[in-house]
Specification:
By secondary structure, the chain is an alpha+beta fold. It has a domain of about 90 residues: Alpha-Beta Plaits (2-Layer Sandwich), CATH 3.30.70.330. The chain is built from 4 helices and 6 strands. The strands form 2 sheets. It has a 4-stranded antiparallel β-sheet with strand order 1-2-6-3. The protein has a two-stranded antiparallel sheet with strand order 4-5.
Length: about 140
């Protein structure tokens, strides 16, 4: 039992334990403080990348996608684990537009064969994003 007593911490005398603790003074806030909700919120235009690179892969450029772009619908390839809310936030942050709706399509991989060897191409997920009327996304710079 002597070994266990060596490792025990010794208690300090009670006189050393008593210390005066002073609490810091807290200043009172003025009563005539303006309300924060009265200030209008302004939406910032421009690009903020943030987490968007983990959501959007690339724009999906096809004839059908270019026809949809005339109707304010834009098509993007997205990562497989993303959902509609993440796609909406990413498009709004990157392109600075207002998104009205998102539709997600899960495209399965195609079966391919070379002689006896059978294989399968990887599938992907794409999102069709509807943008507010009058706003545009410049996918391919002119």
């Amino acid at each position: 039992m002597a070994l266990k007593d060596i490792f025990k911490k010794k208690k300090k005398p009670k006189a050393a334990e008593k210390k005066t603790v002073k609490e810091p003074k807290v200043e009172k806030e003025p009563k005539n403080k303006p309300e924060v909700s009265a200030v209008p919120k302004i939406k910032k235009e421009g690009k903020k990348i943030g987490r968007s690179w983990q959501v959007l892969r690339s724009p999906h450029v096809t004839e059908k996608a270019s026809a949809l772009a005339g109707k304010n619908d834009y098509v993007f390839k997205v990562f497989n684990r993303t959902n509609k809310k993440e796609v909406k936030a990413a498009v709004e942050n990157v392109f600075g537009v207002d998104v009205l709706g998102v539709k997600i399509i899960n495209v399965p991989g195609k079966k391919r064969r070379l002689g006896k060897i059978k294989g399968k191409r990887p599938g992907y997920k794409k999102a069709v994003v509807r943008v507010k009327e009058g706003q545009k996304i410049e996918i391919l710079p002119r």
